[in-house]
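In the previous chapter we treated chains in isolation. Here, by contrast, the input contains three separate entities that must be folded as one system, with a combined length of 1029 residues.
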Amino acid sequence: MVKTNPGWFFEDYTLGQVINHAVPRTVGPGERALYHALYPARHALYSSDQFARASGLPQSPLDDLAAFHVVFGKTVPDVSLNAVANLGYAEGRWLKPVYPGDTLRSTSEVIGLKQNSNCKTGVVWVRTRGLNQNDETVISFVRWVMVRKRDVDAPAPETVVPDLKPALAPADLTIPDGLDFSDYDLTLAGEPHRMADYEIGEQIDHVDGVTIEEAEHMMATRLWQNTAKVHFDATNREDGKRLIYGGHVISMARTLSFNGLANAQMIAGLNGGAHANPCFAGDTVRAWSEVLDKAQTVAPGVGAIRLRLVATRGGAPFVLKGEDGKYLPHVLLDLDYWALMPV
Amino acid sequence: MVKTNPGWFFEDYTLGQVINHAVPRTVGPGERALYHALYPARHALYSSDQFARASGLPQSPLDDLAAFHVVFGKTVPDVSLNAVANLGYAEGRWLKPVYPGDTLRSTSEVIGLKQNSNCKTGVVWVRTRGLNQNDETVISFVRWVMVRKRDVDAPAPETVVPDLKPALAPADLTIPDGLDFSDYDLTLAGEPHRMADYEIGEQIDHVDGVTIEEAEHMMATRLWQNTAKVHFDATNREDGKRLIYGGHVISMARTLSFNGLANAQMIAGLNGGAHANPCFAGDTVRAWSEVLDKAQTVAPGVGAIRLRLVATRGGAPFVLKGEDGKYLPHVLLDLDYWALMPV
Amino acid sequence: MVKTNPGWFFEDYTLGQVINHAVPRTVGPGERALYHALYPARHALYSSDQFARASGLPQSPLDDLAAFHVVFGKTVPDVSLNAVANLGYAEGRWLKPVYPGDTLRSTSEVIGLKQNSNCKTGVVWVRTRGLNQNDETVISFVRWVMVRKRDVDAPAPETVVPDLKPALAPADLTIPDGLDFSDYDLTLAGEPHRMADYEIGEQIDHVDGVTIEEAEHMMATRLWQNTAKVHFDATNREDGKRLIYGGHVISMARTLSFNGLANAQMIAGLNGGAHANPCFAGDTVRAWSEVLDKAQTVAPGVGAIRLRLVATRGGAPFVLKGEDGKYLPHVLLDLDYWALMPV
C-alpha cells in the first residue's frame, strides 16, 4: 500500500462531505516576526501591543492574512494538491482575531461539484473554516478549484453550483469584540487619512515595489505548511521555475498598500479574488487599490471600506483587462475585500 | 597574541579531555517558527500545543532536530573548524524534550584518537552532550571527524578507537516522561498509518522535492550558531560554491519524510549516518526511507520504528551504492534512526 | 489628494521641529531569533537568559543593534526617504536594554540645517530617540542626511550646524542597571580575552566572511520596518541592483567581530560612522577592528572599550583610505563605538 498522499481527485469528493484537515498549528511571536520579515507589514494594530490595546483589543493579534494562510495551508493536501487551477474565493469572513498561543486547525465542507465537459476535470467548491483550540471559528471562506479526475470514465456527480454572494454586505462583517477606534492615533498609525477622506471610485497607486526572491516565498509558504509541490521543486516545471503561492502575492500587495491605506487596519471580509497571472521569482510586485464602497459599523469609530486590491509585476496601474476581456499579462492579482478603519 | 579562534588541531586533543563549548542559547518560539519556515516540518507533535498535550507532554517541544542542531553547532568551533571530513555519528540519544525558554549548552569528551598513516591528519571521536539550564542532559551523541595536524611532526597519540554500538537497541531509547499515544488522532496527524501498518524492509519514496537556496541554508546554519566558514563564504572554495551544512540536509530529508511517515513523530535515537556527497544550492533534495526494525516500548501506545532515511539530489530511489561499494553521486545522506510512533 | 507618502524635502524641516514617527513595534522572541538567523550573532549575553542573569540582567535583551535598527527604521519615512546620502552618526547612546514584550516608537528633533551651495539639496541633522511603552528613552543618536529640495527656489533656512562630540567620553555612557561582570564566565562566552588583554592600537582581523544574499538583507530591512525603496525594488536603479541597508552591513560586521572580540558584549555608545561604499548582494563581507581606547566604569567588573569596526568586501585589512584621503573601494563601513566588556 502506498503510504504517501496522492492527493484527492475529482471523484473523491461528494456533496456535503466534511474534511478534517491535518496538522494543527500553534502560532506565536515567531510566526508574527517572520510575517513582518517576509512582507513590508506596517499596520500598527498588528505591530504594537500598545496600539492594539488603545483600539480595545487585549494585544496585537496575528496578522489577518497570516491567519488566513495558516487556515488555507492545511487544506492544500486534501483540496488542491491535484488542482489544475485555483478559480476563486467568496464569502471570506474574519470572525475572531488570532492571538499568540492559539492553535488553529481547518475543516472544509464540499458545497458544490461540477464536472467539466472534457470529462477530465471538475470544479469543487468548499467552504473552509479555521477553528481555534476552543473550537471557535476564526475564519471562514469559500474557494473553488479545478481538480483532475483519477479515472476519466468515473461517473459525473450531480452538478451543484452553490449560490454565493457576489460580495458580503457590511452587515455580514464581524467586528472583533471591543474594537474601538474613538481614540485612534493617526500619527502613530502613519497616515492622516480617515475613511471619510476616501471617496468611492478613488484609486491609489501604492508606489513601492518589491522584487520577489525564491528563498522568501518558499519560507512563507512552508511556514503556512502549504505542501503544493510547484512552489518548492524547480524540477517540477519544464522551464525550471517555481510557481509562487498566490497567497504570497496577496500578502505582498496588501502590505504594500500600507502606503496610501495605512489606516485600513484589519481585513474583515473577502468578497472575491482572482490570481490573474502566475508570479515568479525576479518579478517586482507593485499594487494599486480602488475604493469600491464604504459603510458604518456598530463599533465606535469603526468604519468598513471595500477595496479592490490589484497586484502587478509593473506596467500601468488602474488597468486590469484588455479588449478581449482577459486580465492583462502584468496583472497578478485582483482581490475584493472589506477592511475596518477609523471613520 | 592572535585573538581569533584558529580552531583545534589533531595534536590538541587528548583522550578523556572534556571540552566545555561556548555560547549557551535560550531557545523559544522564534527558533520554532524559523525551523518551520526553513523546512517543510509538519509532524503534529511539534506543530501544536494541543496535540502535544493530548500525547501527554506539557506543550509542543522544539523540533527534535532543531535541538540537535543547536547542540551540534556549539561544538563546531572546538571540534570541526579544521575538520577535513565529518566521518560518522553513533549512539545519538534524545533524552529529554527541549521546551521554549530552555537554555542549551554543550560539552564534548574525547573518547577516541587515531592518527592517519599520512601523519597529516587524524581521527577524533567525541561524545557530545547537550545540557539544559538545570544541567540535565537533553541529547547525547558520538561523532568522529578527520582533523588536520598543525605540525606533521607532532608525535602520534596512542590509538584508541571507541567501541560503539552499530545501532541502539530499543531498550537504549529514552521515552519522554508522560508520552502516551493511546488517544492518538490519526486524522489530525495527517496519515492513517500506525507502526503496525509498516513492514520491516518496506521502502517509501517520499515523492516531494525542495530546491535549496543559499539564503535558507545560511539562515538555518547561523541560527544554530554553527560557524564553519565553508557554509557562508563564497570565496572559500575555488569553485565559488558554499558547502551546505550536513544538518540542513538531515532536516530537509526528515521533514520531507512526513509524506509517508507522518506518524513517526519523535526522533529518539540516531544509530549512524553518513554525508555521502556534498550538497550545494540549486540541488533539489528528495528523500526515501526504509523500515529497518520495529519494537514496542513501555509507554502506552508508543512504538519505536527504526528507519533508514536517505536524501538524494534526484535520481532513482532505493539505490545507495555502486558496484564499487561507494555511494552513488546523487546520494547526499544515509541516516539510521529510531522514531517513536503510535503502535 | 495624494494619499501615499512622498517623503519629506529639505524645506519641510525647521529647526527645533519634533517628528513623531509612525508604527510602534512590539519586539519579542521572533525578532531575536531572526536576528540570529540573519547574522552570525554569538555574544553570550544576547544568546542566553542564564548568561544574562549571571551578568545581573533579568533576562537576555534584544540585541543592541536590533534595537537600534527598529528605532532607526521608523525614522526612514520622515527623514531619509528622499535622502541622497546618509552622512554620519554621532552621540549614539544605548540607555536601557530592550526586553521581549517592549514596544518601541521613535521621535526625532531637527537640530541642524544647512542648505548646500547648489541650492538643490541640504543637510538635515536630527537627534532621534527610541522610547519604550513607559516613555523611557532606550536609545538616542544623532544622524545627518543630505535631502533633496522639492523646490530649488525655496528660501534657504538659517544655517545651524550642531556642536557634536567627536566621541563620547566614558562618563557619557550609561551602564544597564545591575550589570555586573564579576563572575563572568569566559569559557561560556567563547574567548579568554578580557579588556586588560587588549592594547590601545591593537588591530584584529576577524577572519570570517559572509556572502550577502538578496533575501537576507531584505528580510532584515523589512523586519525593522525600514521602507527605503532602494533596498527592495530591483527596477529602482539602472543597473538592477538593490542597495543594501547600511545597518545590515553594521550588524554583519559587528557579529563577525565576535571572532576576536567575543567579550565586547554590549554596545553602549556610537561615536561616529561612515558608510564608505555601497554594498550589494554577492559581496563577501569581512571585518577588522582597532582598539581606540579603554576605560573603567562604575559597574563591578565592567570596562568600556572603544573600537573602530571596519567592514570590507575583501581586500587587505587595516587600511582605510587611499593617498587621496578617500575610502578605498573595498571598504564598506568605518564605525567608532564603545562596548562593555569584563575588565
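The radius of gyration of chain C is 20 Å. Chain C has one domain: 10-342. Compare these points with the single-chain example from earlier in the chapter.
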